[in-house]
Amino acid sequence: MRHLINERFLERVMQTSPAKRVQAAINKVVGPLGIRVVRNRHDWSDTQNFIPLKGTLAAAQKASLSVGDYIDTVMNNIPGATRFMIDSLHKLGVFDDAVASALEIGPGSGRYLEKIVEACRPARYEIYETAKPWANYLVSRHNVILQPTDGSSLAPTADASCDLVMAFKVFSSIPFMPTIRYWLEMQRVTRPGGRIVFDVMTEDCLPPGAIATWAASGINNGAYPAVMPRRPMLALFDTAGFALVGSFRAPMGVGQTETFVFRKT
Ligand SMILES: C[S@@+](CC[C@H](N)C(=O)[O-])C[C@H]1O[C@@H](n2cnc3c(N)ncnc32)[C@H](O)[C@@H]1O
Question: In the CATH hierarchy, which top-level class contains the domain 2-264?
Answer without folding.
Answer: alpha beta
